[in-house]
Amino acid sequence: MQPQTIHSTQDTLRGGAPLAQAAGAVILLHGRGSSADDIVGLAKSLKGAPAPLAFLAPNATDNTWYPQRFFVPLAHNEPWLSSALGVIDELVGEVHASGIPFERIGIAGFSQGACLTLEYAVRNPRRYGFIAGLSGGLIGPLDTARPPTDLQKTSVLVACAESDAHIPLEFVEKSAVTLTGFNADVTKQIFRGSAHTVFPDEIAWLRQQVATWK
Fold first, then answer.
1. Per-residue pLDDT tens for 78-133?
2. N or C: which end of the chain has fewer CB within 10 A?
3. Can you name the residues that pair with 155 across neighbouring β-strands?
């Protein structure tokens, strides 16, 4: 059964090289109350990569991917959550169908988008170019049951400020442990303070990932 259509790929902001000419693609997912116009600023930080990159940034309906906090029981965020994950899957499928291998598809999100990014990866395991959760964690309570899966050593960033009011640190720490157990190559970055923002070290990590796509 297809997820209920709440979000759509039709309002996706596209930039960089056309898919047919790109050596890799990055899907960017904005946070709650934000938009594709905001998150696409990360693309500017990745300009100058050795290979031409395509960027795709979908917009959430009402600027919200799912209505409740990310750590409530999964059912409380349905059907919005499944629809949001379906948007990512549709874009990944579009990129792959254009000829770009999964190993050169990166997914990066901030806040709500970070949680979606990590959740999508564990539900759709394969080797990606990279997975980056910028101020986020896996969706659901800490004791959410997750069947074993294999991310095939995909490089995964799990990062957040230590006192972020929106993302409790214990969920970030647990996400890093879970993803490591799912055979991801996890980098965990915990920053001092409470800023809910994208940090320079996160951007440096993203640049390092796309630098290998030569």
1. 999 999 999 999 999 999 999 999 999 999 999 999 999 999 999 999 999 999 99
2. N
3. 185
Residue ranges making up the domain that contains 86: 12-210
Domain assignment of residue 155, yes or no: yes
User: Is 58 strand, coil or helix?
Assistant: strand
**pLDDT tens digit string along 24-75?**
999 999 999 999 999 998 998 887 778 899 999 999 999 999 999 999 999 9
Q: Which residues pair with 29 in a beta bridge?
A: 109
pTM of the model as a whole: 0.96
Please report whether residue 2 resides in a domain: no
Residue 7 counted as domain residue? no
Q: What is the CATH number of the domain that holds 180?
A: 3.40.50.1820
Residue 70 lies in a domain: yes
Task: Give me the number of domains the chain comprises.
Answer: 1
- Buried residues in 23-57 as b, exposed as e (16+ CB within 10 A): bbbbbbbbbbebbbeebbebbeebeebeeebbbbb
